[in-house]
Amino acid sequence: MTTRRIAVLLGAALVSGCASGPDYRRPEVDLPGSYPGQAESSAPAIDARWWQLYRDETLNGLVAGALERNTDLRLAVARIEETDANLREAGAAFLPEIALGASGTRQRISTQTATPLPSGIAPLRNNVRLSASTAFEVDFWGKLRRAVEAARAIALASRYARDVVSLSLAGLTSQAYFSLRSLEAQIALTRATLASRDEFLELVRRRASGGIASALEVHQAEVARADAAVLLKDLERQRTLAGHQLGTLTGRLDLALAPSGALLALPVPPTPPAGLPSALIERRPDIRQAEQQLISANAQIGVAKAAMLPSISLTGLYGGESKSLSTLLQSGARIWSLGFGLSLPIFDWGRLEARTDAAEARARQTLALYQKSIESAFREVADALTNLEQSTAVEQDLQKRVEAARDALRLARIRYEAGYSSYLEVLDAQRNANDSELAVIRNRQNRLSASVDLMKALGGGWSADTYSSLPVGALQSD
User: Does residue 21 form part of some domain?
Assistant: First the structure.
């Protein structure tokens, strides 16, 4: 490449201020306008504090504590601080680096060499030097600009990563809390069932002692009572483990919540607005994180391509050099230099081209991950909507089943005590009644869990009263 051609390229770069590599453009992802079974409508506002929609003060306190004390969140914040430091380092490359240098030497020259010292020159000499030097790379090709662009995108991605942790943490805390409350309701029901089995066991024993019931019926009643006792102990074990999980999530290992076993104590899941547009998933922090990673990978292509172009550097030095400190600042001791350097790779056997190819391949990988994150988000929202709708629809049928099972148990007991049916009929009615009531509680938990999954899949919840939007990333202030 001739000097004239290099000068033309440098001049064009100075005028245009171009940056090497492709500029980022958001890729298009073909998604349906709405989810299966949903009519498209205008997007509701997303409330970052979605757990407040359940109107449960205990849950609000648990989530607030988790967002304040959880170790995973502290780790995410530390990563933000690291990426911010990397961004400052990348931005500092635009400014010249200045270094202060000082040196002092005392030297003796031999007087016994073939060439004698000139007269008047002593064999001992001092040399003192004080200088400031600078070096600066001129960003003609935009390599530094692309590096800052990549670092800025990674810094933003780390913030969205923190929001991903916050969203997941709030979801895990909510689901653990709902699981604990569901287990308490099941424990309360099973205790009532156990008391009923104890009462019925005494009835069968009295009938057996009077010759009305057989020993087989007594043993069957004992088995039914033991089944309820075993189930109660297992539910209590699960409730304890759920409490341990909540303590870990909230950073309070000594957490103890007062039991509340009634089914009505479980919160009612908020109903999603009719018609959720698929564009809502763009607000998810993990999708925004993936996009920032794509922006960074795209900028790294420019960094790799700029390395194949001439590198321009400026150097400078100013200071003083003298044989003694007393004359170091005199005008005669002053030293300075200015330098210009140009470096252009000629033969590297394809190393820089390979780096560019690798950067482009990484960008394609990141693009695929970005598109996959959007597709996965769409499926997660659709699945959560389906689960929420089905668990809501089946709740009324389950309640009717409970009422019918209770009536069947009441009639079976009357028929047994009157001698019109066997004890097996009572046992069957007892199991159906107990299973029906447990199914109602577990379905409410499934409904709550599905609503949490929907909140997480959307990146937040909808506003129940107003549509005033909160800023994206407001799960926790910086």
Answer: no
Angle (CA) 17 18 23, round 5°: 135
In a domain, 469, yes or no: no
392-401: string of b/e by CB count within 10 Å (b at 16+)?
bebbeebeeb
Question: 335-343: long-range contacts at Cβ-Cβ below 8 A with a sequence spacing of 24 or more?
Answer: 335/129, 335/131, 338/314, 339/314, 339/315, 340/312, 340/313, 340/314, 340/315, 341/311, 341/312, 341/313, 341/314, 341/315, 342/6, 342/310, 342/311, 342/312, 342/313, 343/310, 343/311, 343/313
Write the pLDDT tens digit of every residue in 6-42.
Answer: 444 444 444 445 667 788 888 877 777 666 655 555 5
- CB atoms inside a 10 Å sphere around CB 59: 19
Residue 393 is part of which domain span? 31-90+163-309+365-462
Amino acid 23: pLDDT:
86
Query: What domain count does the chain have?
Result: 1
Q: Does residue 314 lie in a domain region?
A: no
Structure tokens of 414? 């009357």
407 is written with which tokens?
A: 């009536």
Summarised one tens digit per residue, pLDDT across range 85-117 is 988 888 888 778 888 988 888 888 877 777 777
* Domain of residue 415, CATH code: 1.20.1600.10
**pLDDT higher than 50, residue 351:** yes
Residue 111 lies in a domain: no
What mean pLDDT comes out for the span 124-145? Answer: 83
For residue 420, give the 3-state DSSP assignment. Answer: coil
pLDDT tens-digit profile of 166-187?
A: 999 999 999 999 999 999 999 9
Angstrom distance (rounded) from CA 407 to CA 413: 10
Nearest-angstrom CA–CA distance, 387 and 430: 29
The residue whose two tokens read 């997941």 is: 168
